[in-house]
Structures are given as structure tokens and as C-alpha cells.
Amino acid sequence: MNRLGCRPPSTFDKDAQEFYNVIHKYLTETYKGKVPVRNLAVDGTLGGPFATLLHTPLVGQHYHGLGAAIENIPGLTPFQREIAILVTAAKYRANYAVAAHLVKGPAVGFTTNDIESIMGGQCPPSLDVAGTTIYKAADHLVNRPGTLPQTLYDGLKTHVGLDGTKHLVHLVGLYSYLMVVLNGFDVQAPEDAAA
Fold first, then answer.
1. For the chain, which domains are there?
2. What b/e string do you get for 153-191 counting C-beta neighbours within 10 Å, with b at 16 or more?
3. PANTHER family from the entry (predicted)?
4. Per residue in 83-95, pLDDT tens?
5. Can you give the three-state secondary structure of 14-33, one letter per residue?
6. Is the pLDDT confidence value at 158 over 90?
């Protein structure tokens, strides 16, 4: 649930219907074969962050489009992306995001100890050089004011390339925005967070 509530499809205007159609397709294709589909109730109501974005569907369309574009920037593996996302989640402590990524982390190769380290503000010792550099850069971007130091920027370029560097910076920005939205509208994790 969230502070704005969930809009049933019967209340949609044209913009909400267009956004809903995009997200419905995304969710059913992403979670094909999994029942229930995450963030999509049996009656068609959207949950999670999509429920809040449905209240501002033009923003939702742009957010979803930006997320899809960032995901298509090459250079980071799913494991490396998750490092940056977990660091951002550790900063903002958005209930929904923390629960979701406690589930997603192990699915891409994180141990419980790795996740606990990151959520506790520590770089896991198990990370390789690229992973450690990603951790340090993401941590700087979300926890320290000012420009990313040149040494971290150069380290990213060395270990994940220029595309990976671009991907990381945009990803941390995207997830920072998402965490603020989740916290502002108090988006709660589902009771069965593993769903």
C-alpha cells in the first residue's frame, strides 16, 4: 500500500490508461510464467512504485522510459548493477526497495553477508576490484556532497569502461529518484516480500 492508494482500472483517464498498458505489458513479459505477477493484482490493480506513478502517469511514462534506456546502456553485469542499487537502497532505506532487493540480491549472486555489509554501509570484502570500485563510486554519489572524485571516475573507466561508467552514474541517479518517491509516498513492501 502507499499514501496515494491504488487506482483501479475503472478510474483511468487516457494518460493513466496508456501508462497502465505499458506497465502491464512490462510486468507480464518480465515475470512471464510466475504467478502472481509482481506488482500486478489479480483484478489488474498495479502495486509497488507503479501504483504511485499511476497518479502522475506522464511522469510514470518518462520514468519507465528512462529506466528502460538506462538498462540498455552496456557495461555493467546484473551483479554490478545490483551493487549500485543496494548502495542507494542503504542510503535511502525505502521500505519497498530494501525488501525487493533483499530478494533480488541473492538471485544475481550476492550472499547474505554481502547484502548485510552493503546495507550496513560497508563494502563487502568478497567484491573484486571492479565491484569495489562500483561500491565506492555509488557510495560517494549518494552519501557525499560534490563531484565524484577523478580517481573514482578513472577507476570506473578502467574497470567497467566508459559505457559502464555512464550506466552507473545514470543508474544511481534513477534509483535515488525512485527511493525518494517510495519514501515520500510511503510505499510498503508486500506482506509476502518474496512474492
1. 9-71 (no CATH), 78-184 (1.20.1290.10)
2. bebbeebbeeebbbbbbbbbebbbebbebbeebebbbbe
3. 4-CARBOXYMUCONOLACTONE DECARBOXYLASE FAMILY PROTEIN (AFU_ORTHOLOGUE AFUA_6G11590)
4. 999 999 999 999 9
5. HHHHHHHHHHHHHHHHHCCC
6. yes
